[in-house]
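2024-03-11 09:14:02 INFO receiving multi-entity request
2024-03-11 09:14:02 INFO entity count = two
2024-03-11 09:14:03 INFO echoing inputs for audit
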Amino acid sequence: MKSRGSASFTLIELMAATAVLSSVLLLMVGMQDQMSRAWNNANRRTETGREARAALRMMATDLATLKTRRPTSGPVVNLVAANVTNGPIPFAYYRGVGTAPLNIPSRLSGSMFLFGVATRANGDLNLVGYYVARRATTNLNGLVLTNAHLFRYRRDAGSTALALSNYFAAGTNSANVLFPGIDPASDEILAYNVAGFSVLALGQGANSNGLNFTLPEAPNQGSRFHVTLHLYPEEISQRLRAADWSNTTNLIKFSRSYEFRVRPLARPVE
Amino acid sequence: MEVVLALGVAAVAFTAIMGLFPLGLDMSRETHEETQAALIAQSILGDMRDDYQAGGTSQTNRRILVTNTINLANAMTNFAVGINTPINVLYLGFTNHTINATANPGESAAGALVLRPAMSAQTTSTNLASAPIWFQNGSNGLAAVARVIATSTFRLVDTIPQISSLDIMVETPGNIPATNRTQYGFRGGFR
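2024-03-11 09:21:47 INFO inference complete, emitting structure
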C-alpha cells in the first residue's frame, strides 16, 4: 500500500512556494508600476513633441506672411513709411532688453515677443502676435497650475482695419494702439509649458526693441526669422515652482528645444 | 519542481512586460526625431528661399546658416545652386549646441540644448561615395546629418535664375554609418 504522505506537498513546501511566488509577484507589480510611469512619461513627451510641431507650423505660416519693409536709411527708402510721420509699421518686437514697447498682462518676465501685420492668401490683413505669459489652467487630474504658455494673438480683417485706422489717427507711434486687447485670458494657447521662446531676425539692425524694427538687407545676412521654442513636458511642469521655471539646471535637464528659420515670402516693400 | 515551474511562468510574464518598456521609449524618441527633422527641413528651405546676396545681384549662391557657437547673424556659408550645374548637393552635420545668450544676444533659455548645423560640404554628385567621410560613416559623433539636393527643374534662359526643386533627407543618428540610419524625407521648391 502506497503512503498518502509521499504523493502530496508538505506544509513547509507549500509555504516556501507561496513565499517565492509572492516575492516574484511583488517584484513584478513594482516593475509594472515603474513601467507604467515610464510609458505615461513617454506618452506625455510624445504629446509635447506633437504640440510643438503644430505650434511651430502655425508660427511658420504666420511669420512667412508678415509684412516687411526695407530700412528707412540706406539705398532704398520705404516710401509708404516715409509718408507716415513717425509711424512705421510693421513690428512690435522685444528682445528682453530695455523697455518693452507693448503692455502684455502676465507676460513672463524678460520674455520676447513679436507682433506684426500678416497677409492672408485672400489679401486680407490680420494682426498676429506671439508672446509668453502665465495663465491658470486645469489639467486632466483637476490640478490648477499657473504656468507659462506660448500665446497666439490674432485679429480678423475687420478688427485689423479698425486698429490700423486708430493707429494712424492717433498720430503716435504706439504699439498698444496698433495691437489692442492682448489678453492671455482669452488669447489662444499655442503651446503649453513654455520654458523659453525667442525670435531673432537675421540681419537685424540696431533698433530692435520697438515699432521701428526693420529687416535690413545687410550684406550676406538676408531676411529671415530664427525661432526657438523650449517646452517642459507636462509631468515636469507640475513639479516646478514659478521661481524655478527658467532655472538653467531645469532647462538643461528637462526641457525639449525646437528651432526653425523662415523667410517672409513677400519681398520687402520698395 | 513546482516552484521551478512557477518561476518559469513568472519569468515568461516578466519578460513580456519588460518587452513593452523600450516600445514606449522608442515611440517618444521617434516622435522627437521626426519633429526635429521637419524643423531642420523647414530651416533649410527658409534659407534657400532667401535669395538675397551682397549687392543684391547674385542668384547662384544661397546663404545657409552653419553655426553652433557664434552669432547667428554672421555665420552663413554659400551653397552654390549654379545655373550651369543641374545638380548641387549639400551635406550638413548637426550637433547639440548649448544656447549661450552672450554669444547670441537675444536668445532665451540659456543652457538649453538645440540642434545646430556645425559642419557642411558640397558636391555635384548624389553618389554616396562622393559624400564627406563624416556623412558616410558617422565618424564625427554628430547627432543628425542632412543631405540637400537642389535640382534644376525648369529654365528658360541660362542667365535667368531657374526654378529648382529641393530634396532634403534628414538622417538620424548621425554617428553611425549611412546605411543604418533612419531617414526622414522632405521636398520643396525655390526660385
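2024-03-11 09:21:48 INFO post-check: The two ends of chain A are 112 Å apart (CA to CA).
2024-03-11 09:21:48 INFO post-check: The first strand of chain A starts at residue 92 and ends at 94.
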